[in-house]
Structures are given as C-alpha cells and as structure tokens.
Amino acid sequence: MTASTVSVRTIALQNTLLSYQLIRVSRRSVTIRVEADAVVVRAPRWLTIGEIETVLRERADWIARAIAWWRRHARPLVRPAWQQLGTEGKTAEGAEVLYRGAMLPLSVGHGRKNEAQRDLLGLTVFSSEPEAIEQSVRQWWWREAENVLMPRAMAIAAQAWRKPAGVRLSRARGQWGSCNARSEILLNWRLILLPPELADDVIAHEVAHLYELNHSSRFWTVLEAFHPGARQRRKALAEWTGLLRE
Hints:
This protein has six helices and twelve strands.
C-alpha cells in the first residue's frame, strides 16, 4: 500500500485566504473535514490541484459555516496562555482555567513545586515555570475527574439499577464516553470541564448502554426513564465539542 502524502496549501475562498491540509490517498473522491484548528482535505492522487480547489469552491459556503461554528463553540481551557501568568505570588490579569463549565481564577503561589490546589478564591499553582504550570493543572484536572466523575457514574448506574463491570477515564479525542460488551464504561477526563448537568447526561448515556449497546428506540426509552431530558439536551452538549480537540 502506498503511503499518504501530506502538504499545506492556501486558497482564496469568499475573499478570504484559507489554509488547508491536503492528504493524497488511494480513494475515488474528495472529502473535506473542518476541525477546531484545521481544514483537512483528502483527495485521490491522480486529481489535479485545480480540480481539488474547484471542489473547495463549490463547498465554500459549507466550509465557511463549519469554520464559524467552531469559532463560536471553541472553549478556552485556559485564559490567557500559561506563559502569561504573573510572577510568584501574583495572578496575571484575566488568568483562568476551565472547570465544570466555569472559569476559575488561576494564580501562582509559594509551596511545593508542580502542584495545584483549589480554594475559595480559585486555583493556585505552586510553580512559576510555564511547562510545570501546565502539567500541574492537567494533573489536577485528571484527579478531579477521578474524584468526581467516577463516583458519579456509580451513583447514576445505581439509579438505573445497573452496575458496570468497571469505570475508567480515557483520553479519547473523538468521544465523551463509551460502553463495551463487557459492561465497562470509559469516561473522557474532559467531562470535568463541562457543566455538571451535561457531564451527567454523558454518564447516563453510557449507563443506558448497559441495557442496550445501540441507539434503538428501547435505548432512548431506558435513558429517559432514569435520566429525563438527556436526549433534548444533546444540542447543548454539542456546543462543547471543541474541547475534545484539546
């Protein structure tokens, strides 16, 4: 099998320069995927650049709408960047981290290095090195996910009169959660960044899969029975999809 070739190109669409990643593959058609931070085009090896860009121009309206959607729904994990934090013992103006649907003030303090602690004022990181700050916050998010999401999963499962074989965290980039045939539930650690009610919706969705490993009408009936409204709130959950790319 011939390896794919990748290049970055630029095209003018609707009076705007658009950079896109072109991947040459063994296929018969052109596919376009708009992601949080990139436009990815997969095209047959034999197709000319002119023919590929004709397809892009034909889909220009859709591409513009998809890019606009990502811009509206991209959620900052941190504001501003890690490097913009103030000196030890101070908080950079506007420095925040995302947690359970809200932004917590982020500051740098004295103490043991590479550690993050939350109090009534926000989150304090005991390090002044940007890389260590990022590592500490991510470790804190993971610990919070373990301490909050996993017990929550067991509580919601009890409401549904089901007990999973196990609950684990995942780092998946494409989905909030999953449930397999062994009755094991995997929850994306990024659920700790969502508003609690939306995180509960995801957990309940996976718990319902303990009854039905599909999305049949029976699955939705089961979910609605012990966790009403989750299906209707799926649109609200979709607005946080950008976090899966972080």
